[in-house]
Amino acid sequence: MATGYVRPARPSDADEIARIQLATWRVAYRRLLPKHVLDGMDEEFLAQRWRTAVATPPSDRHRVLVAVEQAEQSYLVGFVASGPADEQALAPNEPADALGSDVAAITDLLVEPRWGRRGHGSRLLAAAVDLWRGDRLTAAVAWAFEGDAATRKFLGSAGWEPDGAGRALDVDDMLVDQLRLHVAVPTEPAPSPEPA
Questions:
Q1: Beta strands 139-145 and 103-111, pairing class
Q2: Residues 6+ away with beta carbon under 8 Å from 9
Q3: Contact 78/111 with Cβ under 8 angstroms?
Q4: 193 in any annotated domain
Q5: Phi-psi category of 135—alpha, beta or left, where left has phi over 0 and alpha has psi -120 to 50?
Q6: Which CATH number belongs to the domain containing residue 63 in this structure?
Q7: Tens digit of pLDDT for each residue in 122-166?
Q8: Considering only CA atoms, which of 105, 116, 110, 94 is closest in space to residue 29?
Q9: Is residue 158 domain-resident?
Q10: What is the side-by-side order of every strand in the sheet holding 174-184?
């Protein structure tokens, strides 16, 4: 029987994180982003960025967590990156202090499609929330492509809602709309379900 768990990323995970990011984007965003942009993404460049993010994060509240599926052998199957909200979390023309210092921001939350629907996304999100709670962050935000129904549905099922902010990313002269979702960070962990 396969089991899954979440752990902090290690610098040695960077190549696999980049591979998962690229594979997931090429499947999940193939109808949202231009094909030549997805085809032209450089896996080694992404890996170097992830290596830096894991080894030398901007603060001790910036973290990358990975989801692992363990059967006869272990597979890295997804990841989440988050930290205190910064200028990347802001909407266009939003004041620098609009989100406050007690707000977390997810920059990436991906599970490779072939490992989907096994609880990895939920485990990643729950682990991130636990860390935000420990950091005394009271709310969180995440940007999602407007056309990414799967991510919006997943976050919505965990209580995330649009906060009214939107932006358009310029992807090789094509504007791709995003909306910002937000959620309050619960002050207590969710109770474990009662055994059946």
A1: parallel
A2: 17, 50, 54, 63, 64, 65, 66, 79
A3: yes
A4: no
A5: alpha
A6: 3.40.630.30
A7: 999 999 999 999 999 999 999 999 999 999 999 999 999 999 999
A8: 110
A9: yes
A10: 3-8, 63-70, 74-84, 103-111, 139-145, 174-184, 161-171
Distances (CA, A) of 32 to 39, 141, 171: 13, 21, 10
Structurally, how many domains does the chain consist of?
A: 1
Residue 194 lies in a domain: no
| pLDDT for residue 71 is more than 80 | no
Indicate whether 190 belongs to any domain. no
The boundaries of the domain holding residue 58 are 3-184
Question: What percentage of the chain has pLDDT greater than the value 70?
Answer: 95
Residue 20's CB is within 10 A of a number of other CB atoms, namely 26
pLDDT tens, position by position, 81-117: 999 999 999 999 999 999 999 999 999 999 998 877 7
Dig out the tokens for 17 from the structure.
């994180």
- Using the predicted structure, report yes or no on whether residue 5 has a pLDDT greater than 90: yes
